[in-house]
Amino acid sequence: MTDPHHGGPAMKRALILASGAIVAACGGGSSTPTTPPSPSNPYTFTISTGGVSPKEFTVPQGTRILFVNNDNRRRNMTSDPHPEHSDCEQINNVGLLNTGQSRETGNLVVVRTCGFHDHDDPDNTSVRGQIIIRP
User: Fold this and answer.
1) For strand 102-104 and strand 66-69, is the pairing parallel, antiparallel, or unpaired?
2) How many degrees, rounded to 5, is the angle at CA 93 between CA 92 and CA 98?
């Protein structure tokens, strides 16, 4: 007869299997956080302490542009002119980016040239650029 408080060999196997399933479900016990994948948009403006790079893209209609903020301060990317932001409202979708954040514009469907700037730093030419939309 087996002790009901300690279980027999079948109970031990069940506990070992359950423990293994829990560890597997938790990612093997690793405490290292996963890093999100890098942006894969070929049209990416990167903002750093030196400004925005590149300064210009020429894109086909319907394109979205990704803005990535690698600067050590937040940036508020908006369409020209300041303060109306009315030339290319799809750029206004980017808006406020904290350090490390990224966001895409809306679909750029109208053939035109769109300037952009940091709304909170409108006179800083290093964070100005333009997007040329072609058919």
Assistant:
1) antiparallel
2) 95
What percent of the residues of the chain are helix, what percent strand, and what percent coil, each to the nearest 5? 20, 30, 50
**C-alpha–C-alpha distance, residues 24 and 80, integer Å:** 52
Q: What ranges do the domains of the chain cover? A: 44-134
Place of tokens 């469907």: 109
pLDDT, position 7: 57
- The span from the CA of 96 to the CA of 76, in Å, is 4
44-134 placed in CATH 3.20.20.80: no
The Cα–Cα gap between 96 and 119 comes to 9
Question: What pLDDT sits at residue 40?
Answer: 77
Instruction: Indicate the pLDDT class of residue 6, thresholds 50, 70 and 90.
Output: low
Q: Is the peptide bond preceding residue 36 cis, with omega within 30 degrees of 0?
A: no
Distance from C-alpha of 108 to C-alpha of 58, rounded to nearest angstrom: 11
Strand partners, 53: 46
The better pLDDT of the pair 12, 64 is held by 64
